[in-house]
Every structure is written in C-alpha cells, then in structure tokens.
Amino acid sequence: MKRNLTRFVLLVVVLAGINWLASSFFFRWDLTEDKRYSISDATKTLLTSLEKDVIVNVYLSGDFPAGFERLESATRETLEEFQTYANGHLIVNYSDPSAATSEEQRQKQYMSLIDRGLNPTNVFANEDGKRTEKIIFPGVIVQADTLSVPVQLLKGNKAGTPEEQLNQSYEGVEFELASAIRVLANPERKKVGFVVSHTKIPPARLSDMIATIQQSYDVFLDMNNPESYEGLDALIVMKPDSAFSDEEKYKLDQYVVGGGKALFFVDGARVDSVSLDGNYAQPLDLNLGDLFFKWGIRLNTNLVKDMNCAQILLNVGNVGDNPDIRPMPWRFFPLLNNFGQHKVTRNLNAVYTRFLSSIDTVGGANTIAKTPLLMTSPYTQLVNAPALVGYNEARKDPEPSEYRSGIKLAGVLLEGSFTSLFQNRILPGDPRAAKFKASGNTGKVIICSDGDLIVNDYDYKRNAPLPLGYDRVTKQTYGNKDFVLHALDYMTDANGLINARGKQIAIRALDKIQIQESRKFWQALNLLLPVALIGIFGALRYYLRIRKFG
Prior knowledge:
Blueprint: H1 2-24, H2 41-48, E1 54-58, H3 66-85, E2 90-94, H4 103-115, E3 121-127, E4 130-136, E5 139-144, E6 147-152, H5 162-171, H6 173-185, E7 191-195, H7 207-214, E8 218-221, E9 234-238, H8 246-257, E10 261-265, E11 269-275, E12 278-283, H9 289-295, E13 297-299, E14 302-306, E15 309-319, E16 322-336, E17 338-339, E18 351-352, E19 359-361, E20 368-375, E21 380-384, E22 387-390, E23 409-419, E24 439-448, E25 458-459, E26 464-465, H10 480-492, H11 512-517, H12 519-549
Parallel strand pairs: 1-2, 7-8, 7-9, 9-10, 10-24
Antiparallel strand pairs: 1-5, 3-4, 5-6, 11-12, 12-22, 13-19, 14-21, 15-16, 16-18, 17-20, 20-23, 23-24, 25-26
Helix pairs in contact: 3-5
C-alpha cells in the first residue's frame, strides 16, 4: 500500500513539474517535413507587436469538395497559429454566407460580400449521381477599428490544374493574411514616390495601381520636381514617353547609388496609332540607356511577338449588314507565364503585357546580382523598330518556324552595390560635388520592358477604371497588380514578411484508380481493424490476469 502511495505521489509531482514547465517556457514543434504549420519570424514579430484588436471574418466555411476543404483547413490552422502569438489581439469568426433563412437573405449576403471586395467562386460537385453547384467565397475580411481589408485566398497561376492552383493558394495563406494585418496594424508607413511627369497616360489609367499602393504606403507624386529622391523608401517610374534630362538622370543615379529601391516600367519602342489598319512602332529614346547599361542592362528598341498571347476583338468580315467581330490572338500582347525562381514571382498568375520589348543583360559591375523575374515563352519573334504593326497580323495563322527566337527577358531584378554613371564627371567646383556619391550602400532595381504592365484599362460607359491586369476579351484579371505589390514589398520590407511566400507544400495526390478499385477493402479495413485490435488487447489482458491471479 505504501509503495503504491509513493508511486502516486511521484506521478503527481512529475505531472505538476511538466505543467509548470509548459506554462513557463512556450514552444511549438512542427514535425511535418515541409513545415506547413510553421510561420515566418517576420509574421511572428508582426503579431506580437499588435497593439489593437484585429478581427478576421472567415467566409470559407461549410461543406466543400476536398480541395477547398484543404484550403479551409489551412486557413483555420494558420489563424490558430497566428492567435498563439497575437497576445489576445486577434479575434477570428467563421461564417457560411450560403447559410440563410431565405433565398432573398442569401443573395443579400452575397452582394454585401461582393461590395466589400470578395469575389465568389462556383464549385461543382457530384452528389448521388447529380451535378450540384454551390457559390462560395474563398476569402476573409480583416478589420480593425473602422477599416477593413478584403483578402482573396484563392490565388495562384490559373494556367495550372485546379489541384495545383489550390495548392498554390494553400502555400500563400500566411502571406495574404499577414499582409492584410500589417496594413491595419499601421506600423511606420513606408514612403513611395511615383515619377509621372514624363508620361502622357491619363491619371485615370494609373489610378488602380496608385490607389492600391496608397492602402499600405504613403504616396508622393513628383509634380513639384524635387531636388532629390532622398527620404523615399521606393521610387516607381511609370511608363515614361519623353526623355529624361541629364539632371533628372543624375537624381535617379544618386538615389540608387545611395541604397535606394527603384522600379522602372519602361518601353523600348513607342507605338502610335496611325490608322484603323494598324499602328506604327518607332524606337523610344528615354535618355536612360547609358544608366541601364552601367547597371548591366540593355533595353532593346524592338517588339516581341509571342505565341503565348492575349486576344483582341477584330472585325474579320461581315455577316449580312453587320460586322463580324471576333476575338483573335494578338501576338504583340504577350502573356508572361514564365517566371524566375524568386519570392516575388512565386505562384504568380500570368502577367498581361502590351507591345513588349526585350531586355539583354550585359557586363556591368561584378557587385550587382541579376535575377530574371519575367520571361516570355520560347516561341517568340522579334520585330525591330521602326515597323508597321498591322491588325491583319491577327488574322494570319502563325508559322511556327518563324517563332524561334527563344525565351526573352522582360523583367529583371538587380541587387548590390551600384557605381555612379557620373563617376569622374563631377569636378570639385561643381555645386553637386559636396553630396556626390560614387558608390554606396546596397540598392535594388527592377526593370520591366513594358510600361503598360502598370496601366489599367478604363470603362468609358461606366466612367470608371478597370482593375489592373483585367482583360476585356476573356474577362480575366491577370497577375499584374500582384507582381507590382510583391516587388514593392520585397524592395521595402526590411523584416522580410515576403519570405512567407517561399513556403512550399508538396502535393501528395492519391491514385484515383486505386481508390476506386480498392474502396471497399480500405473501408472494411478502417472499420474492422480498430475493433480487432481492441479485441486482441482485451483478450491478451484477460489472459495475463488469469495467468497472474488464477
């Protein structure tokens, strides 16, 4: 009896010790191979620094096919992990928008979510041999105080299979949620400048990009032509169509040499409409060629025709008295779906371009690393400017033998220590000599060879801008906006929240044929095996007791 009491007391002491250790030392251990339940250090820092309550309303809730159930589970598990580090400042609510007392109420809920920025998705399934359809909202709305941010969870590259797209969405849950929380937590906002004084693009066609960036950054336009760009965390040059002066080029040079972050969306050729039959492309000299060359980049004065392209609406004839307008492939509008291995472009949807030029890398400084971000397909053809771009081109069936120019670079990231183009040019008596930097801190530059990449279309009937990357013909929204936002995030985020986009979770697909053929076997095994094991254990225990006491 005394021996049993000693054992009991020892057990209580051990359990109390384990409980004290668990309450005093917090740790979590992710044993999965791909660390699917771990979050990045930058996300942990963001959550632990929350000073106000953030509410996450999840609308991906209910009965779904397996793929969406996996996305729902990933969202739930990620938010549970977030709550662990948020010190009680993260509140999560789950609701199913399709759950309503009447169809009228259901439609009202749907419209409310659409108005708040969430896009619905139609899910089809087979139930008892019948095809069913359900509208779901794979997204959440994150809110704090009176502000809210919609978050689309269903993302990824739409050129992939549904399983691949869902898996890419699964991988991006942490980044999408953390990015929305960061917007509302409102830490020190970074400053982003836009160089718009060299473009004739109407403000309405740049509005979507600027308005989106304004949600997370303080935005400055260069209308007052500042003496320098010092103090800006990033600078975006938006589709210039007139040459920069040497003084303006000097400011760009010194900003980058001083460790600045700059994004250039520039054209190699100007395309002007000359008639209803087509356009005329001519070389565009922005007076930036020597600066780019110093950095190791050459922007070519050509146009890229790509077999992987968007479509335009074209009058191909007449049907009676009416024109026959059809969507036709327009190879001067490449769809860029070939990306470099980088967090900025990981799991990105295709990027929509118009009259793209090619980029070449040249020698440049050894201190600058060059990373390809955007590339064409291998099936390209180059058209050197000047050239006439006729719309009849869309009517012709392409000859594959003419599209063998290979993969062309359309966007590149430059990182490292930049040397000034004006080195040995600034004399001691020059007023600029006192602040001149011949080389400096580590800077970052992204150059994309299509200014239209950040230009949104416009709906003149509704008098409203369309989303950046929206294609009128296919009604799809491509990945232009995500590319710019991820690039800007990478350039300015010293804490590295974008590292969460590096998470990789392998698809472990089941063999559907084997499942169908062996369904009954595995069902019986899962049903009977636990019962059999319990029976064996009970019989063995009974035998041992009989042997010991009998």
